[in-house]
Amino acid sequence: MVYSQAKVIAGGLAHIPVVIGVFYLIMTFFNKRAIEFSENIKTKKLETTPKKTNKSEKVANPPKTVSQPVATTKKKHADVPVNIYRPKTPFEGTVIENYSLLKDGAIGRVNHITFDLSESDPFLNYVEGQSIGIMPSGEDANGKPHKLRLYSIASTRHGDNFEGKTVSLCVRQLQYEKDGETINGVCSTYLCDIKPGDKVKITGPVGKEMLLPDEEDANIVMLATGTGIAPMRAYLRRMFEESERKKNNWNFKGKAWLFMGAPKSANLLYEEDLQRYLEQYPDNFKYTKAISREQQNEKGGRMYIQDRVLESANELFNMIENEKTHIYLCGLKGMEPGIDDAMTKAAEAKGLNWAELRPQLKKAGRWHVETY
């Protein structure tokens, strides 16, 4: 059959609506699938993306660290004076008094030295737990001025006379043997020899590691040997001296426990004051001595401060489990390994891991160390 050109064109045009309809159905199908695919992708992203939380929102049940009773937030102190005087521009303080702290039969030489700060401008103020630098007079073997040495402050911010214009140090003269000769420490000998009226170059104050917490009901555990008692003396005077308590807007209500190490009873420092605090504040102050050449530990050896820590392990770690308890360690650097070993054993008795607990205490601002 032969069709004319007109019929062919007419027949083709007749199929166009059908083709358009089929094409529309196909496009509708794929558009719908594309929309569904897009929605699925969005849903998956929402499911896998962690939800952002508002920092101000409180978690009802925060996760707890098993057997590690440590606060994780280190509280900031109020403004603390630092480097009011520097080595290039020291303050020359006047010596008010310098006397021995030791009794007959003691080993070595330890002095209590007080300086007048009243003429400092700007005023050299400080807080308990800080240190000052001392620049000894004279020159070294190379003809250069002696370098400064840092010493822990042994007085409160109000000074020994409570007038707020002095600072005191507790200094042991360094002595050691070299090639059969006794060598004296430069700065410690200089300080032990100075007289009232002498001028001494002072820098500082420095340090924020050994500051007391602000809470009045905090517990303070102090581990000290020798002149490491210097900052502890400042703490205890702030806590228990009546004149201090009247001046401060801070009245200690917690428990203070001092572990003190010395070679002989005659080497115990500030003993009269400590005994007075025990008598006046028996519920707030505990005093444990380790006198190495006069007492024996349970193994029959010399009694050191770490032995006393082990003896008191249960009570001590009951305190440490309290987040308001702070531990302060001050003295010769050689005491650290013994204390660390004792704390490890004491922690084990309570089912704790000291290797994990100590850095947590440090992070929380509850473990304070100053050794030299």
Can you give a write-up of this model?
This protein is α/β, with parallel strands linked by helices. It folds into 2 domains: 91-206, Beta Barrel (Elongation Factor Tu (Ef-tu), domain 3), CATH 2.40.30.10; 219-371, Nucleotide-binding domain of ferredoxin-NADP reductase (FNR) module (Rossmann fold). It is 32% helix and 22% strand. The protein contains 9 helices and 13 strands. The strands form 3 sheets. It has a 6-stranded antiparallel beta sheet. Helix 6 (305-311) runs parallel beside helix 8 (335-349). Residues 1-67 have low confidence and may be disordered.
Would you spell out the secondary-structure blueprint of this structure?
Blueprint: H1 5-48, E1 91-100, E2 110-116, E3 131-135, E4 149-152, E5 166-172, E6 175-178, E7 181-184, H2 186-193, E8 199-206, E9 219-225, H3 229-240, H4 242-247, E10 256-262, H5 271-280, E11 285-291, H6 305-311, H7 313-320, E12 325-331, H8 335-349, H9 354-363, E13 367-371
Parallel strand pairs: 9-10, 9-12, 10-11, 12-13
Antiparallel strand pairs: 1-2, 1-8, 2-5, 3-4, 3-8, 6-7
CATH topology of the largest domain: Rossmann fold
Residue runs with pLDDT of under 50 for 5 or more positions: 1-67
Give helix and strand order, one letter per element, not per position.
HEEEEEEEHEEHHEHEHHEHHE
Q: What topology, given as strand order, has the largest sheet?
A: 4-3-8-1-2-5
Return the CATH architecture of the largest domain. 3-Layer(aba) Sandwich
Structural class: alpha/beta
Question: How many domain units?
Answer: 2
Name the shape in a single word. Answer: globular
Number of helices, where a helix is a run of at least 4 consecutive DSSP H or I residues: 9
Q: What characterizes the major β-sheet?
A: 6 strands, antiparallel
* Content of β-strand: 15-25%
User: If you compute it from the alpha carbons, what radius of gyration comes out, rounded to the nearest whole angstrom?
Assistant: 36 Å
Oligomer: single chain
Helix content: 25-40%
Q: Give the overall pLDDT as a whole number.
A: 84
> Briefly, what CATH class of the largest domain?
Alpha Beta
